[in-house]
Each structure stands twice: as structure tokens, then as C-alpha cells.
Write a structure and sequence with these properties.
The complex is a heterodimer. Chain A is α+β, with helices and mostly antiparallel strands. Chain A has helices spanning 2-13, 17-30, 33-43, 54-65, 69-79, 82-89, 101-109, 117-130, 133-144, 153-164, 168-175, 187-194, 264-270, 296-303, 310-315, 338-352, 368-375, 378-381, 468-480, 537-544, and strands spanning 213-214, 229-235, 238-245, 248-253, 277-287, 292-293, 318-328, 331-332, 357-359, 383-390, 408-412, 416-427, 436-445, 455-462, 482-486, 489-492, 497-502, 504-507, 515-518, 521-525. In chain A, a hairpin with an 8-residue loop joins strand 12 and strand 13. Chain A is globular and about 70 Å long. In chain B, a hairpin with a 7-residue loop joins strand 8 and strand 9 (99-105). The chains are: A alpha+beta, B alpha/beta.
């Protein structure tokens, strides 16, 4: 545990990728496989189910630190990280020992989940008393699950590839499924991950997903001719990979989770797929009457259930829109061109002939100008925008930033936006700890039945989109203009206007304002705009198509 | 206010904390006639007051910052009569010359701590416990997450980091507030590792410290360095504002760190994109605040700048009448409010002009020092 805690500290303080890679290499080179298995899991972003509720963790920590719970909350508010707050508060341990990482997880953490509260607290006290301060922090991190140490899955993959001299793509492929929330990686799993390559690796594992980059300027500026591209609608569902091998099928999400059980109709459909094929596509709710997608919120009701009933299946029918074919007749065809894979995909979908398997339509255009016209239809069709894939591109891994040319692009619709007034602020987390970075915004409601005065109604929370310098400015504004404090939340004097962008808007009974926006984010601070000129609820409702 | 309580010795006014019995302010934030100053940091010692009173050790720094001011100085524990009040200054352990202000009127004693720390510091006189009825305390680090390590262990870590960089041929840069923190660091550095280079703003303060007899290792300005190759092993002490500035370019490859109590929190370290954060503060940590408050025996405590509400609530839950004063000292998020010196172009005369008799704030009480006369303690 000490070695892993030291690695964590080193990764946390290293600012360059090279130093991080070197630190990972040194750790894995000396770690026992059982410990390396867990280190890989956590560093690459794996999150086990939380074994102790955060309320129990707080309670045990406040008790161990001999402070009241309100003071613990004040501390958490200042630190912005539960694991760190606890590590800073616990009294120094008198006698510590170096418990191996794997043992720490399998004997001190995982068993806590099934214990009654009292026993959990006792377990925590025992663990804390045996660990030094750096190890305690990491121990708490392992429980709370938010690792955030500036290491990506890709970086871990690279470190393991370098150490084992196995190609990074093969490591990435083997790592699919490794990070599932119920996984308990063993020494054996780690050894398989890093074993030298064997040509016949049988598995039900998906391929690493290839991701698109956002197109920031019109395509004619950088993408050459429109005819070199496959253009498709960008759907707002859930990306998935359907793997059919050895007579059985599995559905994987982009988060590495097996989600087959949640979509029985897709499993039924997959029975009709030929063996040795892998499809990349979108899992999405579909209204066959109007031949259009159902709102994303409907899909969420399906995602929330592990086992789905007949009624829910009837209410929210699901289809798989196939984008790409990655394996065909048992052969990995990712290095073939998009055009070749597309031709095979068209033939396959046609042959399967199943209503729950739809082919992603190719939008035929001859010029970018024409495509810009088509893009305007996206919202009406329930799409988020367009996908552009170079016809001569291979299927890559992840979001490859190094390619300046770019091969897959998402060309989203310009977000809808309104000017709204900042009314509440809350402190952020991680590197934004103790800065006011999380904001609530309001718009004017002109129809106030109680009086002639218009009032502000909150409609969205947003906490991204500002630069560090802007955050500092807004933070200072919040401190100067605080009206009231409720725990970590400050009520701010309504004054500052910001432009809020969002992807979609729907009527919602759950929200005070009557509308719910999707992916709200701050586009810019409107210091130039007096708050009286902020947008109204009516204009917001008009965007939602009501009112 | 209950009737049986005597009139308060100190009250909050628009210009600052005011003592009516002596008609003076302590660390006022707006210009007043008579200002008693706890220490020379810019949020406590401001421009524009007519007369100043401060500790003798503060004089050099105050004059270099505020220029030709009317300044009367006191030795620690020396007593001065101002109107109805008897005033004396006692070490606060914060920076050179920092003082707590003790005010006594009719047997009632109030002590204003200014900024203080209870950890030992080789560059200034140690915090003195001054028994009182009413104690006015800061709360910059007034949460239990702030607990400082032994200074010797921390300095050993800093020296080890310096030595490691020196071996790798990398310059070490530590950002530290120019007044106080920088000198405390200097006093703990091991000069056998390499040369120590100070930014001009730091060097000015080093001179003031040395003039008061504080032993600091040899330092030089970057302009004094003729053999640039000697810099590879150097430790550079510079104000936080130099981070990312062109001033640092001359040093080539360097590793940087920030020395501040705020470095206790990981988010603060990461936000500054530093290689290291050393938790070194000139303010009391949580245990320090509580022990200082308790040992004064005060039954009433006013909390100023910092984590005011949590400390007030804690005190009230522990049988002490805790209240708050909303002051304009510091900033809850930045120790920088302590130490960022405005570039002082108005170079004062460090020796000071003699103060005319009618300029003085009060008259020294002859004979006894304050230590002999503190028989009363709070209930």
C-alpha cells in the first residue's frame, strides 16, 4: 500500500506525461501481480461499487477526529474531496504497517459492503489505525471511488505495453471488460493482460471504441472535399458494441459495462446475426410510428433498470442503429477503410433483415454547402447533429488527438442559448476546491400571479465552460455579493449575466421553471448585459415548443 | 449587551477596531488620527494614518513601506498610557516585529492578537500568552484540517528536495511571501547545498531582518551572480507573483514549489500547477488557535478574518462566549494578503527621523513592565 500511495503522490504532483509514464513504469516493474492488478484497475478508471455509504464514512471520520459533524462538513466544504478531508482530520496513527494493496482491498475494503453499520465503522477505524497518512488518503480514495490523479486509461495502457513489450492496442483490447464495477482483478488477470501475444485469443470482448473529435469550424475550412466523407446523423442515445462470437452475443457500453441484460430485445435480434461479427452502433429508444428517436429521458428509464419488465419494454422500444462493422466472419477488419467496412455492413444488415437492427443512413451530399442545409434538419429529426467519417479511414482507438488531419468528426448543432442571471453558487471539487465554480441560473418570469413585479426563476445548474481566469473573477464576484449562506451554497445578489448553452429542452413537471435543459454549460460571461435584459421563461418555453 | 458588563474596550467602527478609552484604532483600514499597528503586513499596516504606534522591531519595515510617517515605537512589554487606556505590545510570533496589543482599562484587559502563530520561528520573538478577559483572534486557518508538522521535519524535506534538484542540475524555486515566510525559509535552509538567490522584493526584507540582528544565511541577488554555471545548484526565493513570469526565464530548467499553509490542500497545489507544495505557514493552525485562546483564559473571544463562523460556533459549544468582528484583514483564501508587498518606491529612511514630542500617541508608563502587573485573569 505504501508503494501505491507513493505512486499516487508522485502522479499527483507530476505535471508532465513523461514523468507520469516513468512513475507508472517504475511502480509496475516492482509490484507483485496481485497488487498490480488492482493498481491497473483503479488507475485506468475502474470504480467498484462503493462498499461504505458516504454518510457512514463521514460519521466514522468525525468520530475518529473527535469533531462534531457540522465541523466535518465545513472541512469538506473547504477541501472539496471526501477522501482527503478524512485523511487530514484523522489523528496521527501510532503504529502503522505496510499492507499490500490487494490485501487492503480484498480484506479491508470489499468485505465492508455486507456488514451492518456498526461493524463497518469498526472496520474503518481498524484500517485507519494501521495506515500512515499517505496510505490513508489512498485507502479513502479506494472507497469513495473518485480517483482523479491525472492518469488516463490510455496512459496506463501505454505503461503496461512498454513494460510487457506487447502492442498497446492489444493491451487496450484485453482491457475491455477489465474495469467493470463488479470486477475483482486477480494476479492471473493482470498476467493475462500483460502476457506476450498469442494469435488465438478467444473472447467475448469488444474492441476499444473509436471516438470523434468536435468540429469547431465549418468543414470546408479543413476537411477537403465533401465527397471524401461518409456523413451520418449523430443520435442522442447510448453508444454500444454488439459482439457475436461462438454462438452467443454480448452488448457492451462505452463505459466497459456489459449491458446485455438490460436490452433483451437486442439480444433476441442478435440471435439472427452471423457468428464472428462485431457491430458498433447506437442503442436508442425508437418510435416506429413516426420513425424517429424517443427522447433521451425515455432511454434513461430503461438504463435505470437491470431487469426490465414487459410494460417498460413496450413503452420504450429499443433499436440498435449500426454505424460500423469491426469484425466480420471472425476477422478483425478495423484496418480496412471505412468504405469497405460500410459496404460489408450494408450487406449484413440487409441479410439479417430485423426491424430492431437499423442501418445508420448515409447522407448523400456533393458539397459542404448542401450539407450545411441538411444539418439544419437535425433538430427536427431528433438528432444532435452530424457525424463525418473519412471514407478511407481505418477504425482507430480512442480519441486520437495527435492526428492533425482527423478522421472522425462530430459536427453538432449550435447549442440553443439564453442569457441568464447567476443566483446561487457552490464550491467546486478537485482542483477547483474552495473556489465557487458551480452555479445556478435563473430567467425572468413575467407572469407572476402574486404581483406586477417580474421575478427570477431558477432553471439550470452549470459548472463548466469558464477559463481559470474567468472562474477567479466570478469567484471574487460571488464572495463580494453574497446575500446568504446555506451550508456550502451561497445566495448571490442577482446581477451577473451569463450566456448558457444547452443541447435540448423539454417540458418538465419536476422543475420549478417547468422546463428541463440537457447538457447546460456556460458559453460566456456577459459583463456587458444588465440583468434586466436577461431572457424570460416565455422565450425558454418557446424553444421547447410550448407556451 | 447585559447591564452588568462594562463598556467594551474594543468596538468595530467603519475605519476599524476602535478603543474609545484611548481614542485610537488597532490596524485601521481607513485613515485615522491614531493607529496602533500589530505588524507591518500591508493588510494591517496601511497608508494615510496621522500617527502610528508599533513595536521597535517593526520600524525598519514600516518605514521602508510607508515612507516618512509619524511613528512611535515600543519595546515588547513596555507600557504606554493613551487616554484612559494602558497599552503594551507583546510578541505574536507571526513575523519580525509582530505584536499583540494589550489594552487595560480599570482592571479590564483586552488583547488583540493581530496575526499570530504558536510554532517556534527562529526569525522572530515567540508568541507570548497574555492573560486577558477579552481576546481578539484571527482565524486564517481556523479549521481542524489545518495542523502543521514540526518545522524541523518540514525543513529537512525542503533541503532534501533542494539537494535532489541540485544533483540533477536543476534550479530550485520556492515562492514565498517576501516578508516573513521568505526569511523563515532562509533561516532553515542548509547553505552547504548551493547558493541562495533572492528576488529583489525578498532581499529588501532580508536587510531589514539582518538590521534587527536576525541571523540569515548569505543571499545574493541574481544580478550579483557572475558565474551562471553556479546557478545550477541554486535555491531561488521569490514572491508568488513571479510564478510563470519572465523573471524566472534566466534560471533555465527549474523545479518549483510554494511555501504556504494553503498547500495543505491538494486542490490548491494542483490549481497552481506546482511541482511541490510545502505546508509552511506564519499563522496558527487549528490546535494552535485553540491552545492560544484557552491559555489566555479569556471568557469572551472575538474572531476576525478567516474561518470565522466555524471557530465562533466551536467556541460557543465549548463554553466560551465567541463572537465575530467583520474586519478587512486578509482574505479567506489567500495567505497572499499577508505578504504581497507593493513595490516600495518611496524608500523611507530606515533610521527614522526623531519623533517630535507632540506627535507621540501616548506616554510611556515609567517603571514596571506589563509582566509584573498581570494579576487579573478572566473568570
Amino acid at each position: 500500500m505504501k508503494a501505491f500511495a507513493a505512486l499516487y503522490t508522485e502522479l499527483d504532483s507530476a505535471t508532465s506525461t513523461q514523468r507520469k509514464l516513468a512513475a507508472l513504469g517504475r511502480y509496475f516493474a516492482q509490484a507483485a501481480p496481485a497488487n498490480a492488478a488492482w493498481a491497473t484497475y483503479f488507475l485506468a478508471g475502474g470504480k467498484p461499487r462503493q462498499s461504505v455509504k458516504s454518510s457512514a464514512l463521514r460519521f466514522a471520520a468525525a468520530e475518529a477526529a473527535a469533531i462534531p459533524e457540522w465541523l466535518f462538513e465545513e472541512c469538506y466544504d473547504a477541501v472539496g474531496d471526501m477522501a482527503e478531508t478524512i485523511a487530514l482530520l484523522l489523528p496521527d496513527a501510532s503504529e502503522t504497517s505496510d499492507i499490500p494493496l490487494a490485501e487492503c482491498i480484498t480484506t479491508l475494503i470489499l468485505p465492508l459492503r455486507l456488514l451492518p453499520l456498526e461493524a463497518q465503522m469498526a472496520g474503518l477505524r481498524t484500517a485507519w489505525s494501521r495506515l500512515d497518512s499517505a496510505s490513508r488518503f489512498v485507502f479513502n480514495k479506494l472507497i469513495t471511488g473518485s480517483f482523479r490523479v491525472g492518469v488516463s486509461r490510455l496512459l496506463v495502457t501505454q505503461a503496461l505495453a512498454k513494460l510487457s513489450e506487447v502492442d498497446a492496442n492489444i493491451i487496450a483490447q484485453r482491457m475491455m471488460g477489465y474495469l467493470a464495477s463488479n470486477a475483482q482483478p486477480t494476479a492471473d488477470d493482470y498476467l493475462k493482460l500483460t502476457a506476450s501475444h498469442n494469435a488465438h485469443e478467444p473472447d467475448a470482448q469488444p474492441f476499444p471504441f473509436f471516438l470523434a473529435q468536435s468540429l469547431q469550424s465549418p468543414p470546408e475550412n479543413s476537411l477537403g472535399e465533401a465527397t471524401e466523407w461518409l456523413v451520418e446523423w449523430k443520435w442522442d442515445g447510448m453508444r454500444g458494441q454488439l459482439v457475436k462470437r461462438g454462438g452467443s452475443a454480448q452488448l457492451w457500453s462505452r463505459g466497459d459495462e456489459l449491458i446485455s441484460e438490460r436490452f433483451p430485445e437486442l439480444m433476441e435480434m442478435a440471435a439472427a446475426l452471423p457468428d464472428g461479427c462485431v457491430l458498433d452502433g447506437e442503442v436508442i429508444g425508437w418510435d416506429s410510428q413516426s420513425d424517429a428517436p424517443l427522447p433521451f429521458a425515455k432511454l434513461q428509464t430503461r438504463m435505470a433498470r437491470k431487469k426490465v419488465g414487459a410494460k417498460l419494454m413496450a413503452d420504450v422500444p429499443i433499436v440498435f442503429i449500426a454505424y460500423d462493422l469491426l469484425e466480420y466472419q471472425g476477422v478483425d477488419i478495423r484496418s480496412e477503410t471505412m468504405a469497405t467496412r460500410r459496404a460489408l455492413l450494408v450487406g449484413l444488415v440487409d441479410a439479417v433483415n430485423e426491424p430492431r437492427l437499423k442501418l445508420s443512413a448515409a447522407i448523400q451530399v456533393t458539397s459542404w454547402a448542401q450539407l450545411a442545409e441538411v444539418r439544419r434538419e437535425a433538430r427536427e429529426r431528433g438528432a444532435e447533429g452530424l457525424m463525418l467519417k473519412r471514407l478511407d479511414s481505418a477504425y482507430g482507438v480512442g480519441r486520437t488527438k495527435r492526428q492533425t488531419r482527423g478522421e472522425w468528426w462530430k459536427w453538432k448543432l449550435d447549442p440553443m442559448s439564453v442569457d441568464a442571471v447567476l443566483i446561487y453558487a457552490q464550491r467546486g471539487h478537485g482542483r477547483r476546491a474552495s473556489l465557487y465554480t458551480d452555479y445556478s441560473f435563473a430567467v425572468w418570469d413575467d407572469n407572476n400571479p402574486d404581483s406586477d413585479e417580474r421575478k427570477l426563476v431558477p432553471f439550470a445548474k452549470a459548472y463548466s465552460g469558464l477559463t481559470d481566469a474567468e472562474i477567479r473573477e466570478v469567484d471574487a464576484f460571488v464572495r463580494r455579493n453574497t446575500l446568504e449562506k446555506f451550508g456550502p451554497v451561497r445566495t448571490v445578489k442577482p446581477e451577473l449575466v451569463m450566456e448558457i448553452g444547452f443541447e435540448g429542452i423539454q417540458v418538465s413537471k419536476r422543475h420549478k421553471s417547468g422546463v428541463a435543459v440537457r447538457f447546460p454549460r456556460i458559453l460566456r460571461v456577459r459583463n456587458d448585459k444588465p440583468m434586466e435584459e436577461a431572457d424570460t421563461l416565455e422565450s425558454l418555453k418557446a424553444l421547447a415548443g410550448v407556451g | 449587551m447585559p447591564n452588568d458588563r462594562p463598556a467594551p474596550l474594543i468596538e468595530l467602527k467603519a475605519a476599524g477596531l476602535y478603543c474609545a478609552a484611548g481614542d485610537f484604532y488597532v490596524d485601521p483600514w481607513k485613515p485615522v488620527d491614531r493607529a496602533v499597528i500589530t505588524h507591518a503586513h500591508s493588510d494591517h499596516s496601511r497608508w494615510g494614518n496621522k500617527h502610528y504606534l508599533a513595536s521597535r522591531q517593526s520600524e525598519g519595515v514600516m518605514r521602508s513601506r510607508l515612507g516618512d510617517i509619524s511613528l512611535q515605537t515600543l519595546d515588547y512589554s513596555e507600557r504606554l498610557r493613551i487616554g484612559e487606556a494602558t497599552v503594551s505590545l507583546h510578541p505574536a510570533g507571526h513575523v519580525l516585529g509582530s505584536a499583540q496589543v494589550r489594552i487595560e482599562v480599570d482592571g479590564q484587559v483586552c488583547v488583540l492578537s493581530g496575526d499570530y502563530k504558536v510554532q517556534p520561528d527562529p526569525t522572530c520573538a515567540a508568541f507570548e500568552v497574555v492573560p486577558c478577559h477579552t481576546f481578539v483572534t484571527e482565524s486564517t486557518f481556523g479549521l481542524p484540517i489545518y495542523r502543521w508538522r514540526e518545522e524541523s521535519a518540514l525543513m529537512a524535506e525542503i533541503n532534501a528536495w533542494w539537494a535532489m534538484n541540485a544533483e540533477a542540475g536543476r534550479v530550485s524555486v520556492i515562492y514565498a511571501y517576501a516578508f516573513g515566510k521568505a526569511q523563515r525559509l532562509l533561516a532553515g535552509l542548509n547553505p552547504s547545498i548551493g547558493p541562495i538567490v533572492c528576488h529583489g522584493a525578498v532581499e529588501t526584507l532580508n536587510d531589514a531582518y539582518r538590521a534587527c540582528g536576525v541571523a540569515l544565511p548569505e543571499t545574493r541577488m541574481v544580478t550579483d551572480v557572475t558565474d551562471k554555471s553556479a546557478l545550477r545548484r541554486a535555491m531561488v526565493i521569490a514572491p508568488p507573483s513571479t510564478q510563470g513570469s519572465r523573471w524566472l526565464n534566466r534560471f533555465g530548467e527549474y523545479s518549483d514549489a510554494f511555501a504556504s499553509g494553503w498547500m495543505q490542500i491538494r486542490g490548491a497545489r494542483r490549481r497552481r500547477a506546482l511541482d511541490r507544495g510545502f505546508v509552511l505557514s506564519d499563522h496558527a493552525d487549528w490546535p494552535g488557535l485553540l491552545s492560544a485562546i484557552e491559555s489566555t483564559g479569556a471568557s469572551q473571544v472575538y474572531v476576525t478574518h478567516g474561518y470565522v463562523e466555524p471557530l465562533v460556533r466551536w467556541l460557543n459549544e465549548h463554553g466560551i462566549d465567541g463572537r465575530s468582528f467583520k474586519t478587512e484583514f486578509g482574505d479567506e483564501n489567500d495567505e497572499a494578503a499577508d505578504g504581497e508587498l507593493a513595490p516600495s518606491s518611496a524608500a523611507g529612511d530606515p533610521d527614522g527621523a526623531p519623533v517630535a514630542a507632540d506627535d507621540v500617541i501616548g506616554k510611556v508608563v515609567s517603571g514596571d513592565s506589563i509582566d509584573d502587573s498581570t494579576e487579573e485573569r478572566g473568570a
